[in-house]
Design brief:
The complex is a heterodimer of chains A (158) and B (381).
Chain A lengths: L2 H12 L3 E5 L7 E4 L4 H11 L4 E9 L3 E10 L4 E10 L4 E3 L8 H12 L2 E3 L27 H7 L4
Parallel strand pairs in A: 2-5, 6-7
Antiparallel strand pairs in A: 1-2, 3-4, 4-5
Chain B lengths: L2 E6 L11 E7 L2 E8 L7 H5 L7 H8 L4 H16 L5 H29 L3 H22 L8 E2 L2 E2 L7 H23 L3 H7 L7 H7 L4 H4 L7 H4 L20 H28 L34 E9 L2 E9 L7 E5 L1 H7 L1 H5 L7 H8 L3 H5 L1
Antiparallel strand pairs in B: 1-2, 2-3, 4-5, 6-7, 7-8
Helix pairs in contact in B: 2-3, 3-4, 4-5, 4-11, 4-14, 5-6, 6-11, 11-14
The chains are: A alpha/beta (158), B alpha+beta (381).
Chain lengths: 158, 381
């Protein structure tokens, strides 16, 4: 399956909420969709394109906005497909994928606690790796591992 | 009727690592369960953002401590795609050899731990004894038995020592005879069969819904193996069969893993033959110098070349001993990866626990969880 095939199949249901399908080496493509079309995208990808296996959900903090991405696999075409949506940093939330892929449950819990992306209508959104009541989101860029001066010290002869 | 929640863990003989299985029981029956993870969370993804690309390899060995080389390979594949680097062919073969030996070592570790859960002591000792032979091989070319730090962006650190392939073949010969003994000890034992048959069932349909991969998926009759379906590295050149079983129970998972070890031996013989006849470089010669040791031993100056280096995204997926592991590497042109995300197969396999535990007895938990092959290091990262 090529990115063009994916775009053709998704555009009927999504219309202009589909922002494009890019080439991504080693996969069927990288689908960029608007966050408000999340459930429709998931259903199309699962039911119509046949990507029935959700492998992972992850988030990236781009400081001015956040990105959430999904990796799905199809046993029919034996390919991966990557779905990606941009979310505003001050209101980073998207519809949960759990109604479509049950396996999204833990991945979304992890993405929520590490990258601070809220998944609406998630059945069980609580801490997974961090202790209960932990208020920070470690994978945000604002969560510093070192102060800058410590980074200077780190430059050692290799 | 008295229902209660019972904590099995974080320190419990069943857990093999640090995690807590909370089970809701009524008498001996399991009504519900809720695995609690995070006791081994070290923030490997966060630390990676503060490391040079080659320094992340150190973390990969700690990520899964029974399959370090397979995780190094996973990360390296994604990093090379993000950095636009191609390794020489010999390095690819050596990495595949590492993968398959690591699969044997990991499955032997699983075998030893699993049979011990069932109370069989001698197979445990045999499993550990034979795993040490594989670790001896690793030691001969990486210098370490657990934390290898062997693979590099653009190849591997060093070529194999003289006489390695012959030593490796001897180990394979020895192991091939041992697999027969393992089967006789387990499958020939009535106690083993009565304990494991029809236990911890997980159908193919549930496997797909819950994201379960690896030997657990193949034990449900689904013939999916990334080495065949999406051949990475040099797996296209190798002749092997995918191990499958139908029963979807604990015994089926045992059968799949045993067959996988045999198939790994078969692949390894082909790889070793190739390595004998194709000497050559094991590191790409046109590498960006800022990648760090051993390319920029003078320290900082090499990093200056990093400016204007093209950005890139890397995605890789490998059939790790436990299942399908994935890495997503974002190169934004800095000295460090901007973001590294890993998908652990055991993470998904444990998250499906409700599907294969509910309805069985408390005493069934050790064999069922043993058959899942839990490695907490890669779940928590």
């Amino acid at each position: 399956m090529q990115p063009d095939d994916v775009a053709r199949a998704l555009s009927t249901r999504l219309g202009d909420r589909l922002l494009g399908v890019e080439t991504f080496v080693g996969t069927a493509g990288r689908v960029r969709f608007r966050a408000d079309a999340a459930l429709d995208t998931f259903h199309s990808v699962h039911d119509e394109l046949g990507f029935r296996h959700l492998s992972m959900v992850g988030g990236i903090d781009w400081v001015d906005h956040r990105e959430v991405f999904y990796v799905v696999w199809s046993d029919d075409v034996r390919q991966y497909l990557i779905l990606s949506a941009d979310l505003p940093a001050d209101a980073a939330h998207i519809e949960s994928a759990t109604p479509v892929w049950e396996s999204a449950n833990w991945h979304e819990r992890e993405t929520w606690e590490l990258v601070d992306i809220t998944f609406d209508h998630h059945p069980d959104l609580r801490h997974l790796l961090m202790p209960d009541g932990y208020v920070f989101h470690p994978l945000l860029r604002s969560f510093k591992l070192h102060e800058p001066e410590e980074l200077e010290v780190k430059q050692r002869s290799v | 009727m008295s229902e209660m929640w019972l904590n099995m863990g974080p320190q419990h003989p069943m857990t093999h690592g640090l995690w807590n299985l909370r089970v809701k029981i009524d008498g001996e029956m399991i009504l519900d369960c809720d695995p609690e993870m995070g006791y081994l969370h070290r923030g490997i993804e966060k630390i990676s953002e503060d490391r040079h690309y080659n320094e992340v390899i150190t973390l990969m060995d700690r990520c899964c401590y029974v399959a370090g080389l397979a995780w190094e390979h996973l990360y390296i594949l994604a990093a090379e795609q993000a950095l636009h680097v191609t390794p020489p062919e010999r390095a690819d073969y050596i990495r595949a050899m590492c993968d398959e030996f690591q699969r044997i070592a990991s499955h032997l570790m699983w075998y030893a731990a699993f049979v011990q859960d069932l109370g069989l002591m001698s197979p445990f000792l045999y499993g550990m004894r034979d795993r040490d032979l594989v670790l001896d091989l690793f030691q001969s070319f990486t210098g370490a038995r657990m934390t290898y730090e062997y693979q590099r962006v653009g190849g591997v650190r060093s070529d194999l020592p003289a006489g390695f392939t012959d030593r490796a073949r001897k180990v394979l010969d020895w192991l091939d005879e041992r697999y027969v003994e393992y089967d006789r000890l387990c499958l020939g034992s009535t106690i083993f069969r009565e304990r494991c048959d029809d236990l911890g069932k997980l159908t193919a349909r549930d496997c797909i819904a819950t994201g379960v991969t690896g030997p657990m998926l193949r034990s449900a009759g689904l013939k999916r193996d990334l080495r065949k379906d999406r051949p990475y590295s040099i797996y296209k050149q190798l002749d092997f069969d995918v191990a499958v079983a139908d029963a979807a129970d604990v015994t089926a998972r045992y059968l799949v893993r045993m067959e996988e070890m045999r198939q790994s031996s078969r692949m390894l013989r082909q790889i070793l033959d190739w390595l004998d006849h194709h000497p050559g470089p094991v590191l790409a010669d046109r590498l960006p110098r800022w990648l760090g040791a051993p390319y920029a031993p003078q320290g900082r100056e090499g990093y200056l070349l990093k400016r204007n280096y093209p950005k890139g995204l890397g995605f890789s997926s490998v059939e790790e001993p436990h299942g399908e592991a994935q890495a997503y590497v974002v190169n934004e042109g800095g000295e460090h990866p901007y973001r590294v995300k890993f998908r652990s197969p055991v993470f998904a396999n444990i998250s499906a626990a409700r599907h294969y535990l509910v309805g069985y007895h408390v005493a069934d938990i050790p064999p069922i969880m043993g058959s899942v092959d839990v490695c907490v290091g890669e779940v928590d990262r």
